[in-house]
Amino acid sequence: MAASFDIFLRFFYVALGLIFLSAFVGLFTDGFHLDIGLFVSNVIGILESFVSPDELSIIGPNGKEYTIFLQFWDHYFYSLVIFLSAFLLALGAGILLAYITAFLPENRFNSVSKTVSLLEALPDLFIIIVIQFAVLFYFKQTGTLLFPVASTGQNKSYMLPVLALALIPSLMVYKVILFLVKDELEKPYVNLAKGKGISKSMLFFRHILRNIIPSIFSHSKSILLLLLSSMVIFEQIFNINGIFTFIITYPEPNVIAFTLILFYLPIFLLYALVTLLIGKTTGQRLEW
Questions:
Q1: How many other β-carbons are positioned within 10 Å of the β-carbon of residue 144?
Q2: CA neighbor of 271 nearest in space, from 84, 95, 98, 86
Q3: Bigger pLDDT: 29 or 198?
Q4: pTM summary value
Q5: Radius of gyration, CA atoms only, the chain
Q6: Whole-angstrom distance, CA of residue 247 vs CA of residue 245
Q7: Inter-CA distances, 216 with 135, 212, 222, 253, Å
Q8: pLDDT tens column, 135-177
């Protein structure tokens, strides 16, 4: 019961922060107005809209008022699928790459680490352009389009946005895990396991990875923030009619607050579930 209440309290604090943030953004809707009264009015308006979400509305291009749910869920799930897919891909790719290089000789290990640091410094926009150019070049040479480079009204692009969005975070995860694995390989139990003839795969996935999962979990929050900050740019570049494009189009405080809280909810539930699983398997209580 205490754990459930703690989880609820965490979500409540984050939701409250998003409400205040959305109310503050509302001060910039028609120029900047540093007005405490307007801020309080925005907060009250957001809370009232949450009590009756059916009354959440937007002003369309024709000046008429519509409920946001006419098109909200399509935008919402499109962005959520891309975001969570990129996040899970980044974690999976980082772990897999770390496994491939973890047992390399020290000189090669250091070379790989330096190369990863170099690639990590590349701007996201440069990577997007390179990937799009590669796909178009392959299409020109073979006549086969591997996957759409941008979304259209009829066809949604998933593969390329997910790959591009996950690339830099994958390198970040990879670099973090390499550092953690290098530290773990110096511990006595590793030499003991090797002496008993335990395979490298079993040693990595059953022992080393199990011990460093709490640290990976802690670092994953910075990965989430990186992905979140990149989503706005990616939606514009790939012509994704996602949830952040929806917010930019309809920047009303209640719409922003409702959207951000709803977008945060599945991420929060995922972290709550993972926290419980890690706590049961490792016996460690994680702070998040």
A1: 7
A2: 84
A3: 198
A4: 0.79
A5: 23
A6: 5
A7: 32, 6, 10, 35
A8: 666 556 676 555 555 555 556 777 878 888 888 888 888 888 8
